[in-house]
């Protein structure tokens, strides 16, 4: 199926978000590339350095834009050093990728790093939310980025960026740097002497920190048991009751049964023998309905769902399995009341349960009320806020906030584009 063309309204909205990022209350350093909002949309990604506080502030602002129906949001994070933030146009056809570095770890072939606090030294602070280093410093960091990532200098994107730096050098009367870049473009290699020269520039400017080579047992646990799989085979589609997640899943499966299959999230635990025995022998003694009983057994329910989820991964065939819940839903209690809350067993989520990619469907309460009258405004807002906080602040994570305020067909097409981007397809 051919990709739909981007709508003018979606493109304008995403461009306005780019402009707002450059005018916000956070302070970030742009590491390379052009600085205009329209240029950001043409870049494969935009690298920014900041504190975790400023990055969280930016992510929270983008959440507000999603709730206003201006874009979709995706946050991925596999390590503490970097958060990848994607802003997707409402129709899913355009994407702005922000690589938000907390520690810039590509100096001296990955042996040294720069934190935001150390990076402020050579900058003349302006009122803009996005700061830039002097040309010489920025170029030195870029050279070390190319070396650390083993970039091929003949690659069109790298060549174009070096040409932009060469033009800037000529404009700013840095003829020596311009000649150096011209030599790099001709030879397509970075000599050790030049690498060392650029390192000395950085050492004279920053207090470079030595990167630790030792991984803690927590890091190893996350990598082995929690890390989202790089190949998309399982996908959670979640949201508060009435948001339309089941309708979206059914529509996706009916339109493309070869690529998608549906699975009821509650079957992750309700099909188990232990749960069935508990329903037969324990539930009658507690005089509880099925949902209340599940909340009472939240500890067992969550661990059983984690086990079933882990068994899915090695047995997945072709296509993608769409699960209409996330396992974190099983630790969320009294969701239809004004004061929903997480179970006291929430800490289990820090250690158990593979963090498969998750799409969280949201829409304004006025729309939700027409579909699910038993959901209260306070309960609806509390659910979205609690889940957003859990998914965006944990590491590792792969979380998408999807605005589901359009028609079913519009939402299906947009969601298909979002999922295609997860598969790495344009």
Question: How would the blueprint of this fold be written?
Answer:
Blueprint: H1 8-21, E1 28-30, H2 37-42, E2 46-49, H3 52-67, E3 72-79, E4 82-88, E5 95-101, E6 103-107, E7 112-115, H4 116-119, E8 130-132, H5 135-148, H6 156-171, H7 175-187, H8 192-205, E9 209-210, H9 217-226, E10 234-238, H10 245-255, E11 260-263, H11 267-270, H12 273-281, H13 283-286, H14 290-296, H15 298-315, E12 320-323, E13 332-333, E14 341-342, E15 358-362, H16 365-371, H17 377-393, E16 397-403, H18 408-422
Parallel strand pairs: 1-8, 2-5, 10-12, 10-15, 11-12, 15-16
Antiparallel strand pairs: 1-2, 3-4, 3-16, 4-5, 6-7, 7-9, 13-14
Helix pairs in contact: 5-8, 6-7, 10-18
Query: How is the biggest beta sheet arranged?
Result: 11 strands, mixed
Q: Helicity level, as a percent range?
A: 40-55%
Write down the overall mean pLDDT: 90
Q: How many beta strands in the DSSP annotation?
A: 16
Approximately how much beta-strand content do the residues carry? 15-25%
Query: Which radius of gyration do the C-alpha atoms yield?
Result: 24 Å
- How many helices? The count is 18
Categorize the overall geometry: elongated
Main β-sheet, spatial strand arrangement: 8-1-2-5-4-3-16-15-10-12-11
Q: What class would the helix/strand composition place it in?
A: alpha/beta
First-to-last CA distance: 12 Å
Poorly predicted regions are none
Task: Give short descriptive properties of this protein.
single chain, about 15% strand, about 425 residues, eleven-stranded mixed beta sheet, alpha/beta
